[in-house]
Amino acid sequence: MRLFRLVRILRTALRAIRRNPMRTTLTMLGIIIGVGAVIAMMEIGSGSSNAIKDTIARMGANTILILPGAATSSGIGFGAGSSLTLTPQDCDAIIRECPAVLSAAPIVRARGQVVYQDRNWIPMNIYGTTADYLKVQGWTDLAEGEVFTDRDVRNAARVCLLGQTIVRELFQNQSPVGKEIRVLNVSFKVLGVLSAKGANMVGMDQDDIVLAPWTTIKFRVGNSSSTETASSSSSSSSSSTSQLYPGSQAGLYPVPSDTQAMDNPQPVRFTNVDRIMVAARSSSDIPLAITQITDLLRERHRIRDPKNDDFNIRNMTEMRNALSSTTMMMTNLLLAVACISLIVGGVGIMNIMLVSVTERTREIGLRMAIGARAKDILRQFLIEAVVLCLAGGIIGILVGCGGSWLITYFKHWPTETSVAAIVASVVVSAGVGIIFGYYPAWKASRLDPIEALRYE
Amino acid sequence: MELIELKDIRKTYYMGDIEAPVLKGITLSIKKGEFVALMGASGSGKSTLMNILGCLDHATSGEYWFEGREISHLSADQRAFLRNHKIGFVFQNFNLLPRTTALENVVMPLSYTREVLSDHDAQRRAVELLKKVGLGDRLNYEPFKLSGGQQQRVAIARALINNPSIVFADEPTGNLDSKTSEEVLRMLQQLNSEQGISIIVVTHDPSVARYAQRLIRIHDGLIVDGQSETSDPMPGGSQ
After folding, report:
1. What is the ipTM of this complex?
2. How many domains does chain B have?
């Protein structure tokens, strides 16, 4: 019976709204534009905010760096990353067993000269890694050529990718793909060229880079930096010929102290990597990813006491904060715009409802004479306002979605359908109807039936 | 049985410090099934009296007994309930909802009724009433397509939808020509004689008053004539 009554009230409201289609349309237009603007804003906004997030993530905000712990020998510390505890197997295990991790890549660093014909250059970074490195860095689009494969990594193939700076210095911007260059006197075939990335957050040129399979750098290129100390000593010599003979390699395995060995009994490892770079699934997953990696590495390295960790994990906290504050600001800005347009629409509704109450004074008087109580009249006008707003809101949602679709279609801006915005618009437009419809409805319900009936 | 009994009803309007007494002590009783004409010049207080009788307004003092209940102190909501269930109104200017079909206009009072009729029953009842007033073929006409007489007949049907005990007609023929006036008045007469619904017609026109069984003249806030229905010079309400 209650439902029945509600249906009847709704029908009365619809009938009253239908009685003046022109005015109804104009009234709804306020809400339609308001809600449509909100929806379009939200969709375009969340699309671009996601694009910004992607961009910042590509700058490395989602990456986590795992460095081996510090080695000490006879009381002399060698600094971060000097012990040899990370293995490629660790990296595989991280990919396999940490759900918060998108991908991970081992890195073996080397430093030295690259030569092509009569030109030479010392790149900032020579990284031995896997193809996943590009995924971790969000750098998967190549300028030309292709990436080396896992098979190249297994076979320690002498292939490499070059950054734009190297292409400029060695090849004077001719295509290097398929050419042979020599990296520390080992010849490599150039498979592809990385797209330009520019400087990183601290101003270092990220295009000044050679990427090759880590096995190749580790086993074929002489001076792969097994430790930081070794790498710095090798970089001081610009001549690569002195590194020709394996005999000149620095001691690979600084022997851990006896107590250390007792604390952490470890199986013999045959290879180690300098660092492992990890990309979390999203910036919010970073803390989770760090916990998972820490647990996994402790287990794999058989470490009970966190004090004895033989690895360090770093992340880009500052960049992450910048990212979240950027998106926060964007969202707040959009919300403010949304609120203003909805309030404007609501004032329009109130205005029209007031006009409508005045215009329908006689009708109100009649309804009261016929037996409508004050609260019936209040409810009727309130429901009319809410129905107007809701109808306007729903049309507005369609207009907004259509608008953002058109913008994507013609201008290729990234947009994203936001269910939250749609739900919020419906709720807010109903709310606007109630808030701005209440005063006119209250005014209508306070009319005196005798005077209302006599109103001309 | 007395349907309505007024005892010393007074109504005074206050405008600042000035008192303007409109009704100065009306005592009146109307029996069930009577057809009464309430006559008086404009400003005589007949509209005020009708508003009080029709529960649209309450008196400043005095007692109002309706079907054996004292109702002069009811709240606005209770009076609304009474108007909805016991009283029908017919107005001079018809007061039909614009752009709303005759049928919907007739059904309208049911939306304020406490016991809800199903849509089907409500429609059937409205159709029945419209047929009775001779508009069975105009159910879905909107008011602007109907003549004045037809509109007033829709209004009569609307007044009857809740089976009222009494119908108030405030100058029901004021906007009609003499021929349609006669139709409308005959219809009221017929309702009165066939269904025993009490009818009170407020008018200043003696030719309208002639249809009533009893005439109450009001002058300057007091009843001057027709206090007792037995002294009515025109029994039977004939011309």
Report:
1. 0.90
2. 1
